[in-house]
Design goal:
elongated; alpha+beta; three-stranded antiparallel beta sheet; Helix Hairpins; SH3 type barrels; Alpha-Beta Plaits
Length: 297
């Protein structure tokens, strides 16, 4: 028993060793350990509060999922900021004495952390203005996918290939972003179709519109439409315009299903799908080209 008391006394003596002076107080090893543990526990606690607010409290309201998680994220940042201040004050550190340190951090942000600060501010803009939200399908440059998370520094987008792409928030604020879900959950899909020049256009329209009407993923209103684009080199070019609400995250699958059905119906009805071809017309052949021999010879 005495050995245990001596061991604990030795640990207490070690923890009482002063390491440095900060905020008008001498910090010993025990205080530093307390600070580190408290800060490490603060972040998962803040994340737990965010999930509780977004998935328990706000879920009972009529808010959409994007707004709920935006409010939850703001609550998380607030809890972290307040918790950090409380932790420092419980150790007896005078926060006013840290103004010089805050100024140095500000200079560091201005000089060496410009990109990180830009992404953090852009993240706040995304959370408050909400040009995009969780569940939206967006297109940024070559990235096309569904927003799964909006964090302080970056936004996560998952493509149809189940590939998660991390986009810096500053890119979503400064560049053009196509949001397929911004107004409602309906999107229009364009399906290019070409037919031969001798095709019966009325028959072609009946076939395509019938295929669109039979597809359960295509909305009846707005009604499907066929737009004549122009005269191509080998075909008459059209765009089939259809609206969908169920295939918003996989428009290529909808186009593929339409192509399969249109091809089968075209073959049954004898509608020809064109292929590149060239016609060569010879009106006369120069004798110099034939080596001095006339065409009749």
């Amino acid at each position: 028993m005495q050995a245990l008391v001596d061991f604990l006394t030795a640990i207490g003596d070690r923890l009482d060793i002063t390491l440095f002076h900060l905020g008008g107080r001498d910090l010993n090893l025990g205080t530093v350990v307390y600070l580190l543990l408290a800060i490490l526990l603060l972040f998962p606690f803040a994340s737990l509060i965010r999930r509780w607010v977004a998935e328990r409290i706000l879920k009972r309201t009529n808010m959409d999922i994007g707004l709920r998680y935006a409010i939850g994220t703001v609550v998380r940042y607030t809890v972290i900021a307040l918790g950090f201040m409380v932790i420092l004050q419980t150790t007896g550190i005078d926060l006013t004495a840290l103004s010089v340190l805050a100024g140095a951090v500000g200079i560091g942000v201005g000089l060496g952390l410009q990109n990180i600060a830009n992404n953090l501010i852009s993240g706040l803009i995304l959370l408050f203005e909400r040009p995009i939200k969780i569940g939206d399908r967006i297109e940024v440059g070559q990235v096309n996918g569904v927003v799964t998370a909006i964090n302080a520094r970056s936004t996560s987008v998952v493509t149809n290939d189940n590939i998660a792409i991390i986009i810096p928030n500053s890119k979503l604020v400064s560049e053009n972003v196509i949001n397929w879900s911004y107004t409602d959950e309906r999107v229009r899909v364009r399906v290019p179709v070409g037919v031969s020049y001798g095709t019966d256009i009325a028959l072609m329209r009946r076939i395509i519109l019938s295929v669109a009407e039979d597809n359960t993923n295509i909305l009846p209103a707005p009604t499907p439409n066929i737009r004549f684009l122009g005269f191509g080199e080998s075909s008459l070019d059209f765009h089939v315009l259809v609206w969908t609400q169920t295939m918003i995250h996989s428009p290529l699958d909808l186009s593929s299903a339409l192509y399969y059905e249109i091809l089968e119906r075209f073959r049954k009805e004898g509608v020809q799908i064109p292929f590149p071809q060239r016609d060569l017309h010879l009106h006369s052949t120069p004798e110099a080209f034939l080596g001095g021999v006339s065409p009749s010879e």
